[in-house]
Backbone:
């Protein structure tokens, strides 16, 4: 399948109608998802006939792209049931129920409910939350869930789950920090592209919280690295 | 939730749980869905499957499928066996039910085919 064709198919993936700001929910665009997965397959052969895990599957965009490029099977994790319901609906739309399985699990505080000794995925794909600070430090009710550095948390899981490679997105401003971690965790790291990313800039003032949703918030542009990590110490090939 | 998914899940995220595998399954609503047989895929996935756990799951669900006690090298080449593995791993969907931790009895609900592995703060190990 050609890149344009893939992107065209992905335009049918339905977006969040009420994205949750505290979970940093937004849809990976068809444009970006197509390029990420197309690159992963054509340059590195990491998708076709492989078993994948999608951490923070959200709308299912990356997983659907991967199935369209013939991934064997995908396990997708997300903590939010509304996202999972949307994802399930998208999976049905693409008739991929037999290829993608969903599990509700909280990646922020708890380990994944899988046996980490039995590494299960060839490739991990993800568009993790980047971690924006809570909007009001004085809120008692605010579940401080998406703290800065949460993407490193996701990356750490990915490292434990992947046999060969990980495809992820991280803020360019954190690149040096990630290089260090990749080295510590015995992974090669390649920045495949630098992107201008528009994520909804959500209202800081508490009073606007009720009316502000990710879908009507003004956009904030940040530089993001599309990175491929390769696991080095695997001798089980 | 398919049995291929069940084969991957553990409850070792719970405090006090050593292995938490395999989880017992209680199905309140289950469906059988036909899925195109892909021999290569099944052959590729079998080395990753915990076979005993799969047999236990088949037993929990009361499925009328015969899986031999042990999975030998020769068996992994046998077409009939591969077809049974395909059916068992991919064609049974638990829509509503529970996964049960083998060590603590803690129940994880399955609804609309999605297992819910979220924990309370007090349960986190």
Residues:
């Amino acid at each position: 399948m050609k890149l344009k064709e893939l992107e065209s198919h992905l335009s049918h993936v339905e977006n969040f109608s009420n994205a949750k700001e505290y979970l940093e929910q937004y849809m990976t665009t068809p444009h970006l998802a197509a390029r990420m997965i197309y690159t992963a397959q054509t340059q590195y052969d990491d998708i076709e006939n492989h078993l994948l895990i999608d951490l923070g599957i959200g709308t299912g965009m990356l997983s659907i792209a991967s199935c369209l490029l013939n991934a064997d099977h995908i396990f997708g994790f997300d903590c939010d049931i509304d996202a999972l319901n949307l994802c399930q609906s998208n999976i049905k739309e693409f008739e991929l129920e037999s290829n993608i399985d969903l599990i509700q699990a909280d990646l922020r505080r708890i380990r994944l409910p899988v046996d980490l000794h039995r590494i299960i995925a060839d490739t991990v794909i993800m568009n993790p939350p980047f971690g924006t600070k809570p909007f009001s430090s004085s809120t008692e009710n605010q579940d401080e869930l998406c703290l800065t550095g949460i993407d490193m948390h996701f990356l750490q899981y990915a490292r434990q789950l992947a046999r060969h490679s990980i495809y992820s997105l991280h803020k360019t401003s954190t690149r040096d920090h990630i290089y260090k971690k990749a080295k510590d965790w015995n992974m090669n790291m390649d920045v495949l592209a630098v992107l201008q990313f528009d994520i909804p800039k959500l209202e800081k003032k508490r009073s606007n919280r009720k009316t502000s949703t990710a879908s009507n918030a003004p956009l904030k542009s940040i530089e993001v690295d599309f990175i491929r990590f390769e696991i080095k110490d695997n001798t089980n090939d | 939730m398919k049995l291929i998914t069940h084969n991957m899940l553990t409850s070792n995220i719970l405090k006090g749980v050593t292995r938490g595998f395999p989880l017992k399954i209680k199905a309140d609503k289950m469906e059988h869905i036909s899925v195109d047989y892909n021999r290569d895929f099944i052959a590729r996935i079998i080395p990753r499957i915990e076979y005993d756990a799969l047999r236990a799951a088949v037993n929990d669900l009361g499925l009328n499928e015969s899986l031999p006690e042990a999975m030998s090298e020769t068996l992994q080449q046998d077409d009939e066996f591969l077809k049974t593995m395909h059916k068992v791993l991919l064609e049974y969907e638990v829509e509503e039910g529970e996964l049960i931790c083998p060590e603590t009895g803690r129940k994880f609900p399955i609804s609309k085919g999605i297992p819910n592995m979220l924990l309370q703060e007090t349960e986190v190990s």
